[in-house]
Amino acid sequence: MKYLKPILLCMVTGFCMGFFLYSGYEKTQKVMPTMKEGENLYFIKIGSYLSEEKMENALKNIDYYIYKVEKETYHAYVGITEKKENITKIKEYYQNLGYVTNEESYSITNDNFLSILKTYDEMLTKTEEKKVIGNIINGVLAKYEEMKDESHKT
User: Fold this and answer.
1) Which residues pair with 48 in a beta bridge?
2) pLDDT value for 37
């Protein structure tokens, strides 16, 4: 009995100190997200098709395009930009070729591609020549496809 009071006092003191330290740790801990938030880019969509063959036939006059397949539908894109003013320039380029386009926004986290896109976007902003605009658009799409393929390799 003589040792019971000191043992209980030590246990209560230890419990109180442990609770105090744990609650302080919990308040200061910062949780870092595992996925970084990407930048929203504008993808210029030229159409959706039920088969790859129909897409290829519809876009045979387009030099370069990328596509993704969702729910057995082929979605074709002919431009990517970060700047809103370049959306109009890209859409007008394809309108002059007889195509109707619209834009969609997607979040991209590939820093290398974003860096290259900034350079292409600056060039696109500064030019009005149709041939140069077409070359810039195709360059962006080629880089996107190249870097997309690299990021999927393990």
Assistant:
1) 75
2) 60
What integer best gives the mean pLDDT of the chain? Answer: 82
How many residues does the structure list for the chain? 154
Q: How far is CA 19 from CA 15, 25, 26, 29, in A?
A: 6, 10, 11, 16
Give the CA dihedral 34, 39, 45, 49, nearest 10 degrees. Answer: 0
Please say whether the beta carbons of 8 and 48 come within 8 A. no
Task: Fill in the amino acid letter for 60.
Answer: K
Strand partners, 66: 77
Which pair of tokens denotes residue 28? 């200061």
DSSP 15: H
Widest pairwise Cα distance in the chain: 98
Read off the pLDDT of residues 36-89 as tens digits, 9 standing for 90 and up.
Answer: 467 889 999 999 999 999 999 999 888 889 999 998 899 999 999 999 999 999
Which amino acid is present at 13?
T
Which three-class secondary structure string do you get for 102-141? Answer: EEEEEEECCHHHHHHHHHHHHHHHHCCCHHHHHHHHHHHH
Domains contained in the chain, CATH given: 39-152 (3.30.70.1070)
